[in-house]
Specification:
The chain is an alpha/beta fold. Helices cover 36% and strands 21% of the residues. The strands form two sheets. The chain has a seven-stranded mixed sheet with strand order 3-2-1-4-5-7-6, with helices on both faces. It binds S-adenosylmethionine.
């Protein structure tokens, strides 16, 4: 991370300026960097907000949780992308009668996962196998077709300029359903659409899915959306089919590939590529640009 850019953003954040715009000026082609800085600066704020507005938030998590529950069984492997501070997924699964076999939480900001893991533990402890990791949705460190359900809650939202690449990667790892709770431009008011355009949010989800060979099976409008200018819909999507990976492999991969990673004392290591990926606290950092070349490890 360019710390000078981060410090400029921190100052701008304290002065209520738009961080995404600031990063875009200096790095026009790196949306993920803008997302990482903008959200890392907010780490902790969503959990604080949850405690201040519990009723509204729980109406939302109850509604989206019951929709997700339709697709879960006791063997399900779930990947939650753009997991943020984990409050949403924690509460969605709290109400679910059936618990999945495993939940992966992917997030680009380490600080948000760090805060969120404590929140998750306060609700679920060790009752569900949960693996948080830092990664970019553009390069997911999991085997192709190894996840039963890919889900999100406004996680894809800020990826307007790279929606096709994100969905292509979700379809690479997803094998049964993508159940995405995301803003729906087409269901939005004029004012909401202008806001989404200004913020670079996703739109035209159905046509991008179609282009990639997936199928939007349902779009369900959520009644208890938290922000009426940014209404949530549940997109139930069938990803294109492909060769299914075995559930026996229980580790990460080099991001965006099927090269296996082995857990060592202090890193995840890839024999094939010679790359070592660090672990900070207990959270693995599985981003290609963070891979350290250590061919003689
Ligand atoms: C609007 S927040 C939603 C967070 C959480 N799902 C919730 O319900 O509170 C979007 C989150 O997605 C993450 N995110 C967005 N784009 C991402 C990307 N390309 N790769 C990884 N994380 C991403 C952001 O860092 C942020 O934490």
């Amino acid at each position: 991370m360019n710390y000078k850019l981060y410090l400029d953003c921190k100052k701008a954040y304290e002065n209520n300026q738009n961080i995404m715009d600031l990063v875009k000026k200096k790095n026009p082609d790196n949306r993920s960097l803008a997302i990482e800085i903008a959200y890392d600066l907010q780490a902790g704020s969503y959990i604080k907000d949850f405690y201040q507005n519990q009723d509204i938030k729980r109406f939302y998590t109850n509604e989206v949780g019951s929709l997700l529950e339709r697709y879960i069984n006791k063997d399900s492997i779930i990947l939650n992308v753009g997991a943020g501070e984990l409050w949403t997924i924690s509460l969605m699964l709290e109400k679910s009668a059936v618990k999945p076999k495993k939940l992966y939480n992917l997030e680009i900001s380490w600080s948000r996962l760090h805060k969120g893991s404590k929140f998750w533990n306060s609700i679920h402890g060790n009752t569900i196998t949960m693996k948080p990791f830092v990664a970019d949705m553009l390069a997911i460190p999991l085997l192709s077709k190894s996840v039963d359900i890919v889900t999100s809650s406004h996680g894809l939202e800020p990826n307007g300029s790279q929606l096709e690449k994100v969905l292509a990667e979700l379809f690479r790892v997803g094998r049964d359903k993508c159940v995405l709770f995301e803003p729906c431009y087409e269901l939005c008011s004029k004012e909401g659409q202008q806001r989404m355009d200004r913020l670079g949010y996703i739109k035209d989800v159905a046509s991008v899915v179609d282009k990639l060979g997936g199928k939007v099976e349902e779009v369900i409008q959520i009644t208890n959306s938290i922000n009426k200018l940014n209404p949530t819909a549940c997109f139930v999507i069938k990803p294109p089919s492909g060769a299914i990976s075995s559930d026996e492999y229980d580790s990460f991969t080099v991001p965006g590939t099927d090269y296996s990673l082995e857990l060592k004392e202090d890193c995840y290591y890839s024999k094939d590529t010679g790359l070592a990926f660090p672990i900070l606290g207990t959270i693995p950092i599985l981003k290609n640009e963070k891979g350290i070349l250590a061919s003689k490890y």
